[in-house]
Amino acid sequence: MAKPPVPHEPKPQASAEERGSNVPTHLFRQAVEQAALAISITDARANILYANAAFQRITGYGQQEVIGHNESILSYHVTPKLVYESLWAQIQRQRPWNGLLVNKRKDGNRYLADVTITPVVGEEGLTTHYLGMHRDVTEVHRLERQVQNQKTLIESVVDAAQVAIVLLDEQERVLLDNQEYKKLIGDLGKEPAVRLLAALRAQMGEVFTKAYDKHRNIAAREVFIENPNRPARWFSCAISWFEEHDVGADAFYDPQRRHYLLLTIQDISELKRQQEALRINSLRALLSEQERIQGLRETLAGAVYQLEGPLNMLSAAANMMGRRRETGSDLPAAGAIEEAIQKSREVLETLRACIPDQGKEAMQPVNLNEVLADVLKLTTASLLGAGIVVEWAPSTESSVVSGNPAQLTNLFKQLVANAIEAVNERRGGQRELRLSCTSRPDHVEVFVEDSGPGIADDLRFKVFQPFFTTKGAAKQHLGLGLAMAQEVVSRHGGTIDIDPEYHAGCRVRVQLPFATGMNHAQ
């Protein structure tokens, strides 16, 4: 009878030490000899016993030239003594040391070596040899230092720039900024860049969104920032994009790109103030010239108006005398009167011809909010001098009418000037001026209210007549120029009147139709 087979017992697994002992010695030698690192073995006094081929390539010394020599033949005096002291202290404690040494090749050239020295400990626990490995990292060091120098240079240039510069990632987190940018933090808040980008978004709308999403550069744009209890600020902002390749290991075969936003910010507030001052001064000069011409027109038109009354009476008398002459009455003065009337009419025609032409300037869209804001700027000195408190309520909707900007500015400037004179006529009490602009369904309505003595009901229409003035009348004064104001309003297809229901002073209402194609909803 056959015997059952005896199962084989599994062989025990060899330990790592046993597996290593099975590797042929010549394989270790070949691996060391062909290694890319410079490898040397020294005795306990650092005298070289062995050096591989890479050692020769890096140092220039052949094996026969270094065997028996101390590793110090590679040392160069620029390496600090402290580094060598640290090296020996470490390896004497039988611990590996790694660091950078400035070494010298056989031809005298220097190179930067990344050195690792490992003590070889014998069975008795004593250091018998040292294993040295090093590689030439001169080029790596040069590149690293070059990058660092460029970074330092860029940061210095950015910091010295007279404009604010800030670098943000795609989440708009600040990565780098300069001193000029830090100065803005006190004025605009913790992150001025975020606030300015929000202002650009609101100002440019879809254009900004498309450029931002596609990482396109945006040329310099002016941005207006209002700060409570502080002067408004103007900035010129430009956006540039650049991308960076991810240096992580994961991105080696799958390149990843990060986009960064560079925002440059230039404070142009002072320049805008100067431009605004120049514009207001130019506007003031233009309005002054217009006032002079309109005053001359009003004076000549008033003179013609005043002379036409007596002349019409003389004409009536001459007609009566003519009828009496037809009945046979002898009136020798009749001929002289007719001749005088003829000469007078010629003079009146000459005066009419001297009235300056109003001009036929083309109408254009005019924003009444902007016109009234300019009027307040033009009259600021007068308002401050009179101690008048101004309340200004602009329209929150469209206030664009069709008209002549200079004429409309002069119109409201005259109304405000009249209001200032009215307040000055009143002694004591509140000194206030209220200016409001409101959009109605088919027109824009402007109110100019003052806390002066007001206008009596029987004078509400007379004040718009040429040469009529209430100046000097007790508690009644609006000033001159309302005939001219009514002429301007009529030319623009609007109306002007004095509110009879307003008793806290005087309220002048001006109504002007919207520009063609405009309405209150736009």
Topology (elements, then pairings):
Elements: H1 16-21, H2 25-34, E1 38-43, E2 48-51, H3 53-59, H4 63-66, H5 81-92, E3 97-104, E4 110-121, E5 127-136, H6 138-160, E6 164-168, E7 174-177, H7 179-188, H8 192-204, H9 206-213, E8 218-227, E9 230-245, E10 257-267, H10 269-326, H11 333-354, E11 364-367, H12 368-378, H13 380-386, E12 389-393, E13 400-403, H14 405-425, E14 432-439, E15 443-450, H15 482-491, E16 495-498, E17 506-513
Parallel strand pairs: 12-14
Antiparallel strand pairs: 1-2, 1-5, 3-4, 4-5, 6-7, 6-10, 8-9, 9-10, 11-13, 14-15, 15-17, 16-17
Helix pairs in contact: 8-9, 10-11, 10-14, 12-14, 14-15
Describe the structure.
The protein has 522 residues and is an alpha+beta fold. 43% of the residues lie in helices and 24% in strands. It has helices spanning 16-21, 25-34, 53-59, 63-66, 81-92, 138-160, 179-188, 192-204, 206-213, 269-326, 333-354, 368-378, 380-386, 405-425, 482-491; strands at residues 38-43, 48-51, 97-104, 110-121, 127-136, 164-168, 174-177, 218-227, 230-245, 257-267, 364-367, 389-393, 400-403, 432-439, 443-450, 495-498, 506-513. A hairpin with a 4-residue loop joins strand 1 and strand 2 (48-51). Helix 10 (269-326) packs across helix 14 (405-425). The protein is rod-shaped.
